[in-house]
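Sat 14:20. Reprocessing the chain from the morning session after the first attempt stalled halfway. Input below, unchanged.
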Amino acid sequence: MFSPRYTITAPILSAIAVIENARGQIDAAPILPQAQFALQKQSTVESVNSSTRIEGNPLTGSQVAEVLSHHRVDASRRAIVEVENYARAWEWVRARQSVREPVSTDDVLRLHALTVGELLSADKSGRFRSGPVWVVDSVAGVDEVRYTAPDADRVPALLAELLEWLNTPNPTHPLIRAGLAHAFLAAVHPFADGNGRVARLLTRLVLGRAGYGFRDSLVLEDFYADDRPAYYAAIDLGATSDVRARADATGWLTYFLRGVVASVARLAERVAALSAAGVPGAQIRVTADQAAVLSHAVREGGISLAEASVVLPTTPRRTTQRVLRSLVDAGLLHTSGAGRATRYHPGPN
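Finished this time. Tokens:
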């Protein structure tokens, strides 16, 4: 029987309180439908880019945006398929989270099939692995085994135990349940490849089903992709699945919730900007890109083109220039300086 060990610490309680408060604000904010659609589209690009980048995908954010807009990019077929697959799997999660039936083994297999379609052979796509798996690190040119997954014949039962725990009503907070699902699906390592991507997607599904969808616009994967060593260190609860099953998961949960806090804070800024600029009856309606730039400018007292490019990493530079100009034309920003020294400040001249 799956029985995770962890302690509800002060930092964990504090993180949950921050997330709950932001959740209420995000869910209640009035946003025009077209802005909501743009926000979801932007978050999909960022989630896909980050989650596949964790696994070594070389595409940039702007290239991912081009792929998902069905435009051609100069990249390998494998890199493109990884991106297309993850986007399809994320859309499946969006639809599945509103279905009331418990999360099943078939759901996990479906997530895997969507994630690795065309990347793995038919006998491995959407199927449990049939052999052993080791997670190996290369240190100073020498391969070292970091993790030994459970024997293949144990995988179905271990996954069934995890899902039974997830589906059985209990007082465990949904954020805790999602974090544990993430770590322990990775520990079961049920597939020949794609385990990390499926674990991150399952996390989304668990959160969405519990009412923590955050307008289907929360980008959790950026936190992991920005510091992969920290991600791998946090989720490493032991060298074997049996050790991980008995391990104290408090450290992982602290890390996981810190990532949710950071992701929710970023989303809250975007939603606040969209709500302020685009409530029903307002004269000014902004896109998700405009909202992201505007929220940064309001928070920092101004923004440059270079800073806007960091805020919109998936947007081409010329498009970012047009976003800034459109906000100036709308009277939401005004400029100072000229040329490369141009800076954009909140409000009209």
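The beta strands are 134-139, 142-148, 303-304, 333-336, 343-346.
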